[in-house]
């Protein structure tokens, strides 16, 4: 009886281990691993990493320190819609989003705040 019980417990433990291995190698868990920008705070700062509905909160944060909020928000949202990224912080850091950085006005100045 004790031998049968120990065999059943051993089989149960092996099934748990195998189930854990299957879940760890599933496409959903691999997809989460690829999206490491969420974990390191770079989500939305690399080109194409935002969805269009995420532009408004990112631009609100980007334009929070300026005295010219309305034009800042207008151009930030326009740039975000095109590039699908907003650099981190309130100023600079445009190297994270080349599209945002390289879009210029007719006079050659930066289009995106």
From TrEMBL:
<dbReference type="InterPro" id="IPR003854">
    <property type="entry name" value="GASA"/>
</dbReference>
<dbReference type="Pfam" id="PF02704">
    <property type="entry name" value="GASA"/>
</dbReference>
<keyword id="KW-0939">Gibberellin signaling pathway</keyword>
<protein>
    <submittedName>
        <fullName>Gibberellin regulated protein</fullName>
    </submittedName>
</protein>
<keyword id="KW-0732">Signal</keyword>
<feature type="signal peptide">
    <location>
        <begin position="1"/>
        <end position="24"/>
    </location>
</feature>
<comment type="similarity">
    <text>Belongs to the GASA family.</text>
</comment>
<dbReference type="GO" id="GO:0009740">
    <property type="term" value="P:gibberellic acid mediated signaling pathway"/>
</dbReference>
